[in-house]
Amino acid sequence: MSALPKCLISAGPTREWVDSVRFLSNPSSGKMGYALAQEANHMGFEVTLVSGPVALNPPEDVLFIAVESAQEMYEILLREFKHTELMIMSAAVSDHRPEFLGSEKIKKNKFPENLKLIPNPDILAELGKAKLPHQILVGFAAETSDHIENARIKLIEKKLDWVVVNDIASNVTGFATEMNEVTLLSRQEETFTLPFASKSKIATGILKQVWK
After folding, report:
1. What are residue 17's DSSP bridge partners?
2. DSSP letters along 150-163, please?
3. Positive or negative, the Cα torsion across 44, 48, 53, 57?
4. What would the pLDDT profile of 13-55 be if each residue is shown by its tens digit?
5. What pLDDT, on a 0 to 100 scale, did the predictor assign at position 1?
6. Global confidence as pTM
7. Residue 38 and residue 32: Cα distance in Å, rounded?
C-alpha cells in the first residue's frame, strides 16, 4: 500500500446529451484541473484525475478516469473520495441535464420548442456531507459578478475547507485561458490572493496553501 497522501482532482466540463448529436455543456478546457494534477504529482501526492471531455493529455504518473456526464462524475468522485486526503473540485459540472429525447438525431422540424431540464446531483454538497475530519475539500467558485460574496456562501453551504474564486468573465482569466488569477477563502476566514500567473504556478500556489 502506498504511503503517499492521495489527491483526487476533477477537471473539465460535463456533457449532457439531448439526443445522439446534441448536448448541453460549457467552455471549460480542463487546463486548471490538469495543471493541479501535474503539480500535485510533482509535490509527492498519489493523484487521481477525473476528467470530462477535453483536448488535453493527462499528466504522466497520474491515475486518469474519463467521464462524460455529471452523473458519471458524481458516481466516480463519491467512490474515490473515500480513499483520499485532499479533494479539489475544479470541474465545471452542469447543474442540469435535459430530458433525453432519444438515441437518434431528432429532425429540426420535430425538435421540441422547449427542453425539460432535470437537476444534476450536487457533487460538492454530497462530498461535503461525506467528508471526514482528516479530509480536505476544496471547491472552485467560477463567478461573473459578486465573486467573493458568492464564494463565501458556497464555502459554508457546501461544507468546504477552501474555495478558489475564479473570475470567468475576464478574457484573461476565464475559460480556456493559459493564465489565471484567483483568491482563496478558508473556513477559518483566511483570504489569500494568487496574482496573475500561469496556471501551473497558480496550481502550485493553491496546493501549498491548502495542504500544509
Report:
1. 23
2. HHHHHHHHTT-SEE
3. positive
4. 999 999 999 999 999 999 999 999 999 999 999 999 999 999 9
5. 42
6. 0.94
7. 10
- Residue 145 DSSP label: S
Task: Report the C-alpha dihedral over residues 196, 150, 78, 10, rounded to 10 degrees.
Answer: -20
Q: 2 pLDDT band (50/70/90 cuts)?
A: low
Domains identified in the chain and CATH numbers: 6-100+115-210 (3.40.50.10300)
Strand arrangement, sheet containing 6-11: 63-66, 46-51, 6-11, 86-89, 136-143, 162-167, 179-186, 191-198
How far is it, in rounded angstroms, from Cα 98 to Cα 154?
Answer: 25
pLDDT in tens, 136-162: 999 999 888 888 999 999 999 999 999
Give the model confidence (pLDDT) of 69-91 as tens digits. 999 999 999 999 999 999 999 99
Q: Which residues are catalytic?
A: 26
Look at the chain and count its residues: 212
CA–CA dist 189, 191 (Å, integer)? 7
